[in-house]
Amino acid sequence: MPQTPDLYTQAQAAADFIRTQTAIRPTLGIILGTGLGNFASQVEQPTAIPYSAIPNFPISTVEGHSGQLILGTIAGVPVAVMQGRVHAYEGYALSQVTFPTRVLGLLGCTSLIVTNAAGSVNINYTQGSLVLINDHINLTGTNAALGPNEPSFARVDGAGQRFFDMSAAYSPDLRALASAESSKQGTHLHEGVYLAVLGPSFETPAEIRAFRTLGADLVGMSTVHEVIIARHMGLEVLGISLVTNMAAGVLPTAINHNEVLDVGRRTEEQFTNLLKAIIPQIKP
Fold first, then answer.
1. Inter-axis angle of helices 268-278 and 172-184, to 10 degrees?
2. Which residues are paired to 118 by β-bridges?
3. d(C-alpha 136, C-alpha 215), whole Å
């Protein structure tokens, strides 16, 4: 029986296919989380490729994730924008959850902006706040780098090691850039720690109290594994969370997915203005 191609071969096949669809060679990848997908409309001269058309690419099943890879330029910067992602709670293995991140690296991206909708553990945040992620806590129970090491994925010298550094997983330079641009626009960006759980259920009040004790400011069901793989490859990462709801027990109200989508729509202008100011300043 024919053997299944290894992960690198599969990712390279996906990247090779994407290159046949466009002349754009992106240096920046952007992953748009729940409710933030409309930012993709900022891409100039876009080529939109459904995930279902890309070899080996996982397909998102969650409302608010359109499932397209859009390549083009923003302010002259060649970009690859993921309009939605997949999650482990959909039934995907972590190798599939992080497959798009690997493909972005193979396409030539040296930096990654990763965004998400998150619940606020920090009682000082408000619904609709944008928060720079300065660190994360992985409570999903696993790690995307499990399994055979794949040094071929390394994009820079020194990357691709079996044991790799995560002490600055979220680039201090990119955070400083985002904070400065937000101040120029007259808005304030919090910085905080994102805690990832597996999902798909929202958290209990007791869990949120425990997460606050651990030092978490935000909680969500994505992002950390993408960041782990991006750092394994040597990509610089900027993480931005949109606070779409106060976590369980913070307010005496139930949490629902429609609320998450609605807050994303209401924050679209601020989010768009921030990213459009940051992108031209990210060096390839």
1. 120
2. 243
3. 10
182 confidence band (pLDDT: 50, 70, 90): very high
Cα 15 from chain centroid (whole Å): 19
13-32 pLDDT per residue, tens:
999 999 999 999 999 999 99
Residues 8, 150 contacting (CB under 8 angstroms): yes
Could you report the per-residue pLDDT of 31-79, keeping only the tens digit for each?
998 778 889 999 999 999 999 999 999 998 765 557 899 999 999 999 9
- Percent of the chain residues past pLDDT 70, beyond the cut: 91
Give which of 33, 34, 32 is closest to 260, Cα–Cα. 34
- Give the Cβ contact number of residue 167 at 10 Å: 6
Give the mean pLDDT of 120-145: 94
Distance CA 35, CA 49 (A): 20
| Predicted confidence (pLDDT) at residue 1 exceeds the cutoff of 50 | no
Instruction: Write 69-72 long-range contacts (CB < 8 A, 24+).
Output: 69/18, 69/100, 70/40, 70/43, 70/46, 71/18, 71/21, 71/22, 71/24, 71/26, 71/43, 71/46, 71/47, 72/22, 72/24, 72/43, 72/44, 72/45, 72/46, 72/47
Are 110 and 166 in contact by the 8 Å Cβ rule? The answer is: no
Distance (Å, rounded) from C-alpha 227 to C-alpha 174? Answer: 14
- Cβ of 249: how many Cβ atoms within 10 Å? 15
Tell the CATH topology of 7-281. Answer: Rossmann fold (3.40.50)
Residue 260 is predicted with a pLDDT of 59
Q: By three-state DSSP, how is residue 225 classified?
A: helix
Q: Among 114, 139, 117, 147, which residue's Cα sits nearest to residue 238?
A: 114
pLDDT at 268: 81
